[in-house]
Amino acid sequence: MNASEHSYDLLVIGAGSGGVRAARVAAAHGAKVAIAEEHRIGGTCVIRGCVPKKLLVYGAHFAEDLEDARRFGWELQGMKFDWPILRDNVLAEVDRLSGLYTQTLESHQVEILSGRAVVTGAHGVRIGDREVQAGIILVASGARPHIPDFPGYEYGITSNEVFHLERLPARIVITGGGYIANEFAGVFNEFGVRVTLINRSDQILRAYDQQLRERLLQISMAKGIQFLFNAAIERVDKRADGVLEICMRDGSVLEADALMFATGRLPNTEGLGLQEAGVDLDEQGAVQVDLDNRSSCPSIYAVGDVTNRVQLTPVAIREGQAFADTVFGRTPVRVDYRCIPAAVFSHPPLAGVGLTESQARNTLGSVKVYTSNFRPMKNTLAGRNERALYKMIVDAATDRIVGAHMIGPEAPEILQMVAVAVKAGMTKAQFDDCVAIHPTMAEELVLMK
Ligand SMILES: Cc1cc2nc3c(=O)[nH]c(=O)nc-3n(C[C@H](O)[C@H](O)[C@H](O)COP(=O)(O)OP(=O)(O)OC[C@H]3O[C@@H](n4cnc5c(N)ncnc54)[C@H](O)[C@@H]3O)c2cc1C
Ligand SMILES: NC(=O)c1ccc[n+]([C@@H]2O[C@H](COP(=O)([O-])OP(=O)(O)OC[C@H]3O[C@@H](n4cnc5c(N)ncnc54)[C@H](O)[C@@H]3O)[C@@H](O)[C@H]2O)c1
């Protein structure tokens, strides 16, 4: 790892959540670092993921807030939603954040190499017509949307394009039943777009607690989102008037103005030269790494979505940090994958940490489940018939809380703090021992009987 033998101590491929953190921290540890990026600094989360998505979720929620405002005495006239205003403000915020990420890299003396990187050997990378050598290569190239293969798939869009729509479609069909499908179904529905979600199985958000999933489904349907289960697209045709005819395997035909794929994300390793350099990939193309993020080629490491472990930004960031501290900070650090909290920013949002009820029943001897099924005070006055559901899963033998799951307003904000307690191994009795803050929704957590 000597920069005089190679151009850099570290060459990072991909300036997203994991790559930027790794590059910055390695440079702070004294390494000579370069980072290659083929698109924009910030990666998926900043440019076309978490950040613009969450801003759209905020924008969409005004539809309900403005409706509810009347019951709180506000008279609102001439309300109208203007998509280009929100879109352009969101894209401007993305530009600002991408600029901040660039500044952070520059202020840490990380050299930015613009262009697509291809690995040429255990220490070699080509970016455009530039060949560079590095003691260590970190692959942090993320993932890309998976697009199902059927005639007419090219008429569909993915989360890459959705933030740039010229105008809102009157009707959208979204395929998939996971995070992106449910988040964008909510966003479009709040904007008044007629949404149909097509799911190949009979369940949405499979990793979440069943009761929460059922609650989201019930609320989403009540809000007007249509769900088609056990359904698959056979072909899509585009009519002369631009309308898409989505032909289903069961013979039915859906008409829509837009089709969005939200069917998972595949690791970005295609044409990257990794296998030629001795890096093992799995059948989906994910880089296989050990607990220290090291691949089968000793000088090549990988973090984030490209390893297909947990496709979440905070996990990619931790992996990038652990890599840099271990390899360049001489402080071995491993990411702890236990109790990773996660949230779906649907309307309403849901969030969870630890074991679901069924996982707990399958793995523990005896389980106690506490639930609070309530109508938030704000919804009551607003006349909004939408109930929240909080669940706590407790190991009966030890009284330890092994899982917490919530759907309702601000669930992700509240669950972040509950996750600290669950990870710390707190007991139900310790929650009960804490006095409530009244009136809040979160007080339900210390009042469950
Ligand atoms: C719509 C959407 C919403 C999301 N919402 C959330 C959320 O709310 N919360 C959450 O935690 N996670 C969310 N995620 C997931 C999150 O964005 C990813 O887990 C995270 O960005 C992964 O970081 P990464 O560093 O592995 O890869 P990325 O952030 O994807 O960065 C990889 C970078 O590598 C670049 N690259 C790829 N190949 C090359 C190459 N050969 N040469 C040069 N550069 C290359 C890419 O252009 C990209 O900039 C969302 C994802 C999507 C798509
Ligand atoms: N709030 C968040 O933290 C957040 C938000 C968005 C995305 N993400 C991350 O990004 C990842 C990708 O999101 P996603 O929603 O695309 O994936 P996902 O894994 O959440 O859901 C994919 C869905 O597509 C379906 N599917 C897969 N292949 C299919 C096919 N060939 N035909 C029809 N359906 C198919 C699956 O059954 C599943 O319902 C997520 O797994 C998550 O890790 C996180």
UniProtKB/TrEMBL annotation:
<feature type="active site" description="Proton acceptor">
    <location>
        <position position="438"/>
    </location>
</feature>
<dbReference type="GO" id="GO:0050660">
    <property type="term" value="F:flavin adenine dinucleotide binding"/>
</dbReference>
<keyword id="KW-1015">Disulfide bond</keyword>
<feature type="binding site">
    <location>
        <position position="305"/>
    </location>
    <ligand>
        <name>NAD(+)</name>
    </ligand>
</feature>
<keyword id="KW-0560">Oxidoreductase</keyword>
<keyword id="KW-0285">Flavoprotein</keyword>
<feature type="disulfide bond" description="Redox-active">
    <location>
        <begin position="45"/>
        <end position="50"/>
    </location>
</feature>
<comment type="similarity">
    <text>Belongs to the class-I pyridine nucleotide-disulfide oxidoreductase family.</text>
</comment>
<dbReference type="InterPro" id="IPR012999">
    <property type="entry name" value="Pyr_OxRdtase_I_AS"/>
</dbReference>
<dbReference type="GO" id="GO:0045454">
    <property type="term" value="P:cell redox homeostasis"/>
</dbReference>
<dbReference type="InterPro" id="IPR001100">
    <property type="entry name" value="Pyr_nuc-diS_OxRdtase"/>
</dbReference>
<dbReference type="GO" id="GO:0034599">
    <property type="term" value="P:cellular response to oxidative stress"/>
</dbReference>
<dbReference type="Pfam" id="PF07992">
    <property type="entry name" value="Pyr_redox_2"/>
</dbReference>
<feature type="domain" description="Pyridine nucleotide-disulphide oxidoreductase dimerisation">
    <location>
        <begin position="340"/>
        <end position="447"/>
    </location>
</feature>
<feature type="binding site">
    <location>
        <begin position="176"/>
        <end position="183"/>
    </location>
    <ligand>
        <name>NAD(+)</name>
    </ligand>
</feature>
<dbReference type="InterPro" id="IPR046952">
    <property type="entry name" value="GSHR/TRXR-like"/>
</dbReference>
<dbReference type="InterPro" id="IPR016156">
    <property type="entry name" value="FAD/NAD-linked_Rdtase_dimer_sf"/>
</dbReference>
<keyword id="KW-0547">Nucleotide-binding</keyword>
<keyword id="KW-0676">Redox-active center</keyword>
<keyword id="KW-0274">FAD</keyword>
<dbReference type="GO" id="GO:0005829">
    <property type="term" value="C:cytosol"/>
</dbReference>
<dbReference type="InterPro" id="IPR036188">
    <property type="entry name" value="FAD/NAD-bd_sf"/>
</dbReference>
<dbReference type="InterPro" id="IPR023753">
    <property type="entry name" value="FAD/NAD-binding_dom"/>
</dbReference>
<feature type="binding site">
    <location>
        <position position="264"/>
    </location>
    <ligand>
        <name>NAD(+)</name>
    </ligand>
</feature>
<feature type="binding site">
    <location>
        <position position="54"/>
    </location>
    <ligand>
        <name>FAD</name>
    </ligand>
</feature>
<protein>
    <submittedName>
        <fullName>Glutathione reductase</fullName>
    </submittedName>
</protein>
<dbReference type="GO" id="GO:0004362">
    <property type="term" value="F:glutathione-disulfide reductase (NADPH) activity"/>
</dbReference>
<dbReference type="Pfam" id="PF02852">
    <property type="entry name" value="Pyr_redox_dim"/>
</dbReference>
<dbReference type="GO" id="GO:0006749">
    <property type="term" value="P:glutathione metabolic process"/>
</dbReference>
<dbReference type="InterPro" id="IPR004099">
    <property type="entry name" value="Pyr_nucl-diS_OxRdtase_dimer"/>
</dbReference>
<feature type="domain" description="FAD/NAD(P)-binding">
    <location>
        <begin position="8"/>
        <end position="320"/>
    </location>
</feature>
<keyword id="KW-0520">NAD</keyword>
